[in-house]
Amino acid sequence: MTQVILGETEGIESALRRFKRQVTKAGIFPDMKKHRHFETPIEKRKRKELAKHKQRKRQKRY
């Protein structure tokens, strides 16, 4: 769980920036997007196959 504690002289904007940075580092947004909608087993398999294909294609270039 990401938590930001405000300092005595710290503004809300800087605390919000720190919070966003911590959330990004923790990888919460990609996980949230992944779990936003239910994914059927067929959709999951297709997504994984497409990712494998893209990875192989990337490796062949270099």
Apparent shape: elongated
Count of runs of 4 or more consecutive helical residues: 3
N/C terminus separation: 39 Å
Number of strands: 0
Poorly predicted runs: none
Strand content: under 5%
Largest sheet: none
Q: How many domains, as an integer?
A: 1
Which class of secondary structure composition applies to the elements? Answer: mainly alpha
What does this structure look like?
The chain has one domain (12-61). By secondary structure, it is mainly α. The chain is 69% helix and 0% strand. The longest helix has 21 residues, at 41-61. The N and C termini lie far apart (39 Å). It has helices at residues 12-26, 28-34, 41-61. It has 3 helices and no strands. The model has no long low-confidence stretch (mean pLDDT 90).
Short recap of the structure:
The chain is an all-alpha fold and 62 residues long. It contains three helices and no strands.
Architecture blueprint of SSEs:
Blueprint: H1 12-26, H2 28-34, H3 41-61
